[in-house]
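hey so u asked for the seq, here:
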Amino acid sequence: MKWKQIPLGPLQTNCYVLVKENKCLIVDPGGEEEKLLSYMKSEQLIPKGILLTHAHFDHIGAVDKVREYFNIPVYIHEKEADWLVDPKLNGSQLFPVGVLIQTKRADKLITKEETITIEEFSFQVFETPGHSPGSVSFYFATEGIVVSGDTLFNGSIGRTDLPGGNHEQLLNSIHEKLLTLSEKTLVLPGHGPITTIGTEMDVNPFLNGF
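ran it, structure tokens below
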């Protein structure tokens, strides 16, 4: 599986396009749908779904435009199903981003940790709350990749001062769900550069001494 990191939207949120042959999954299309669509067209990709690690405004800004263009389903954890339609819950009402973000409801609700298969793609869903109540990470075991959203970053962790955030819960999520993966596992975070589980175990200052 190949992948492409495309920073999008007002906070340059990392959108990921995960590719097998000419089919793909899109993770967290945060905005600038023209930029994303242009890439998809140039690569002649056929998307099969949109995966959302959580529903903060900077991760969902282009959801409807991309979903409608390709007629594909959107997946999100049930705890944040209402966040898609409520600017107060998704944070766009609280931050001066210039527009209130509202999308249609998700097509598929994630209700538990499970393995999801979408045509050629198979991945595990880890519930990793703390940054937000319905935060999830997507683990592609065969490829050794975990898409961590705003749970774990290169040298940092997700903020927990937003509504629904919980610092202790976030650290538990990281240690119990992510740091149990192979140290070689590639971490694709919601912001900033990629990293590995091993690197974060060794040098992430927020994880030392927990």
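The radius of gyration is 16 Å. The longest helix spans residues 167-178.
lmk if thats what u needed
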